[in-house]
Amino acid sequence: AAGAAVDVTERFWSESFAARVAAGSSAAAWSSPELWTGDGFYDSAAGTVADCGDGRNYVGNAFFCGNATTGTGFLAWDLQFFHQHLDLGRTMVDMVIAHETGHAVQARLVHDGVAGALFDGSRRYELQADCLGGASLGRAVHDGYLTLPATARDEMLRVASAFGDEEGPVEGAL
Fold first, then answer.
1. Strand positions, DSSP E, 37-107
2. SS3 of 41, please?
């Protein structure tokens, strides 16, 4: 499921950046973020944890470790994170990977000097990554290279509620 989610988001961003290059608004195509150990996974239960070098604890998490100065970085996710949240449904995997890839897009857009792009760890930064992730999933469904289950809307609401901040999801956002 994670590999398929990476493929979906990578396809969307490759196509989107190709359109930006064709329109002259970007000098370079999309450069995919690296995946930790080649597939993005680490397993904290087995004693391995991805490290961004920032002193944060990434046990039970998914994240993008990036640099807006270079517009690059890597994606990583703890196998235990996905196991702990299986009750949220299969769509959760798509949403989490699309969101983390959204952070990679933010780093790239800041690097490219795109007005409004954020890479500052703020609540707006997280919401912007949600928006970018949602755009990639929405377009993938629209174009037919992602099929979500009939339960996807309910699953998305549960994910937004489970992973949202203390204020919860924005009403009507999904």
1. 41-42, 62-67, 72-78
2. strand
CB 64 within 8 A of CB 104: yes
Residue with tokens 């469904």: 141
Pairing of β 41-42 and β 62-67 = unpaired
pLDDT at 174 over 50: no
Q: Which of 3-12, 137-146, 150-159 has the lowest mean pLDDT?
A: 150-159
| Structure-model confidence comparison of residues 165 and 95, the more confident one | 95
Report d(CA 139, CA 37) in Å as an integer: 28
Which residues have a Cβ under 8 Å from the Cβ of 94 and sit 6 or more positions away? 1, 5, 8, 137, 146, 148
d(CA 118, CA 99): 14
- DSSP label at residue 29: -
Supply the pTM of this predicted model.
Answer: 0.90
Q: Check pLDDT > 90 for residue 22.
A: no
Cα–Cα distances in angstroms (integers) from residue 108 to residues 31, 76, 113, 152, in the given order: 9, 17, 9, 29
Distance CA 140, CA 147 (A): 8
Per DSSP, the three-state class of 70 is coil
pLDDT, position 165: 55
